[in-house]
Amino acid sequence: MAGSGYTDLREKLKSMMPYRDSYKGGSLREPTEASYERKRRYHEDSDSEPSDYEEQKEEEEARKVKSGIRQLRLFSTEECAKIEARIEDVVSRAEKGLYKEHTVDRAPLRNKYFFGEGYTYGSQLQRRGPGQERLYPRGEVDAIPEWVHDLVIRKLVEHRVIPEGFVNSAVINDYQPGGCIVSHVDPIHIFERPIVSVSFFSDSALCFGCKFQFKPIRVSEPVLFLPVKRGSVTVLR
């Protein structure tokens, strides 16, 4: 599904970056002493010990984030296997071109499948920035499959995670080994809270408060690291 030949998103990003740093105005140039100095200062700063104030601030931020999260284990191993087989069928159907154009969104080591509602984001936006995301017109993505209602949504309603009729959009994020998604906020003008996530195929983690930099790719320590087990439900308020 990731036709680029890379096995890790970091490899792809690294391969894209050397010419970006050294090419400007149509000619190659050597890094200046000032640029080395900036990099040296960055590494010195990143290795420095945080102050008590910074630690307290991060602890408070972590408490606030955690207060808006609820996790519960709802799906048994057998139920996971049944749902995972259905997800594999979605992947197979997408590869055969059996879905509408905007149902499937492909990226290196991560594919998204929109059902019910789909939306533009990231590089698809004509104008960049938070709040610019837009829903596709009705009918431009496929309807939520019946198995999602029967095997996933119904169980969430039965356990009072969400009320009946709450869900009008279901998105499958299919990550390959080494795949991830950068820090983001799900658009508040598109998504009603809570946002409910169910994890299948493997254990994973959600990291909150990370800052990404891409030349080279690196990421700060998360404010909150949240383990996510296979078959678990994460409710984000």
Automatic annotation (TrEMBL):
**SUPFAM superfamilies noted in UniProt:** Clavaminate synthase-like
Listed A to Z, the keywords are:
Dioxygenase, Iron, Metal-binding, Methyltransferase, Oxidoreductase, Transferase
Annotated GO biological processes are:
methylation; mRNA export from nucleus; mRNA processing
- Give the Gene3D superfamilies listed for this entry: Alpha-ketoglutarate-dependent dioxygenase AlkB-like
Query: GO cellular-component terms in the record?
Result: nucleus
The annotated regions of Acidic residues compositional bias extend over 46-59
Q: Which GO terms describe its molecular function?
A: metal ion binding; methyltransferase activity; oxidative RNA demethylase activity
Q: Which InterPro entries match?
A: AlkB-like_sf, ALKBH5
Q: Which domain of life is it from?
A: Eukaryota
Region Disordered: start-end pairs: 15-62
Cofactor(s) essential for the protein: Fe(2+)
Q: Give the protein name, as stated in the record.
A: ALKB5 demethylase
